[in-house]
Amino acid sequence: MNPRRLLSESYRAAVSAADPLEIVGPHLPKPPKGRTLVVGAGKAAASMAAAVEKHWPAGASLDGLVITRYGHGLPTRSIRVIEAGHPVPDEAGEAAAKEIFDEVKKLGRDDLLLCLVSGGGSSLLSLPVPGVSMADLKGVTRELLRSGAAIQEMNTVRKHLSAIQGGRMAAACRAPVVALVISDVTGDDPTHIASGPCAPDPTTYADALAILERYGVKAAPAVMDTLVAGNQGRLDETPKPGDGIFRRVKNKVIATAHGSLVAAGNYFLGQGIAPVILGDSVTGESREAAKVYAALAKEVRAYGHPFRTPVALISGGETTVTVRGNGRGGRCAEFLLSLAIELEGAKKVYALAADTDGIDGSEDNAGAILTPDSLARAMKLGLRPDRLLANNDGYGFFDKLGDLVVTGPTRTNVNDYRVILVL
């Protein structure tokens, strides 16, 4: 089998391990005496809702509403699917979030709230607190996305500007709550996934203010006024760990990045290639992380140390890109372009980096593939990899080479999948 196909098939194995249609069913709770309200938000929301309908007992009450990204919807019967803005929130998400919140507050003790949570929910389930407009929330979200802040830091800010996230959905519900969670963050803590609508929030208004200051994020006056008021005790904090409301709440993580890395590793084992999982929690700047992986790959290629070839070096997590240029591309393309520059055309070294949701940043590709001749082919086309990297234009580099990985929406999300294949 050729290296490109090995890389592509391993990515498919990673994505399949987190397919809601396969994994949701065994985790569903028993129907209650009363109503079951299904709500949710994220890139996997429609697929999770379809899985609930598929496995829910015939004749049992079931209705609800979930929010997913534009283009990620699926046909459903009793659970409505609304599409909204991501990664920047919009009014469609705001209206749907308000409808969800209103329905949650109607539930009684004999009912059940089944919340379907996945990556992307932070922007999709956007219901700003009073005094903060959607325009204000859009503005601070755009600034945070460009700043290089980690997803946990971004969500700390968003939770304190939300009427529904940071555990506030659970706090508003009188019924038992079961949240099924597909993790797209390092550490797999439900408080950080979709900004934890049903999870206790250990962060504070002070933390949110510190993050804005740390990254030099300029926020609208209404945003700053809200965070300052909360820090001064004039607004209620988000519900914290140990709060009694969470005694009737269960957050269950049903898919993780590590599970997908293991699935990819098992695929390589079946092809006679040793997999080495280097971690599911890689963070930091994409281009800097690539330098570390390039050094390891060159050591393996030249000396068979610390791993003998053939070997697949597999990793996951969520790196970041501090945007300084005006090019196109997400963190996966940026990682691979930096890797290409560092590898300098090393023979028999191939790589793939792609987001398991099928979207690298806000582009139409999941990621890209790097081959030993990528730099040579780029030079023939007159491309300057160093200049493209400085302009954050990884997409442009791999697009010209015809090496983008385009899958369309996968309707799941367990973060990035990266593999370096050393033959």
Summarize the structure.
The protein has 423 residues and is an alpha/beta fold. Helix content is 38%, strand content 17%.
H-E order: HHEHEEHEHHHHEHHEHEHEHEEHHHEE
Main-sheet strand order equals 3-2-1-4-5-6
Percent strand equals 15-25%
User: What is the oligomeric state here?
Assistant: single chain
What is the name of the CATH architecture of the largest domain?
3-Layer(aba) Sandwich
What's the CATH topology label of the largest domain? Rossmann fold
Q: How is the biggest beta sheet arranged?
A: 6 strands, parallel
Helix amount: 25-40%
**Name of the level-1 CATH class of the largest domain:** Alpha Beta
- What's the helix count? 16
CATH superfamily of the largest domain: Glycerate kinase, MOFRL-like N-terminal domain
Number of strands: 12
How far is it from the N-terminal to the C-terminal residue, by CA?
12 Å
Mean pLDDT: 96
SSE-based structural type: alpha/beta
Radius of gyration (Å): 22 Å
Shape label: globular
Low-pLDDT residue spans: none
Total domain count: 2
